[in-house]
Task: structure prediction
Amino acid sequence: MDALRHGLWGVFLGKFGTRRYSNPDKAERIIEDLLNAHECGQGGGLASAMDYHNNRIALKYYRDNVVVWGPWWDKIH
Result:
């Protein structure tokens, strides 16, 4: 469930970041910063390591789909 939450949050951050900044590289940096800032103060350990892993998967999805294929929300009419 935690992986799903990180993935969905990453997708929504990607959606709004891309619209807001119109620059995929800048949006990706901001998305990564926001995802990682959420882990601040969590104490580390295995749970935090897994959260960072889930954040990387969300960013990979962003790069592989949103950046390559364009924002899907603009294609739905």
Q: What stands out?
A: The mean pLDDT is 78. The first helix runs from residue 2 to 21. The radius of gyration is 13 Å. The chain has one domain: 2-72.
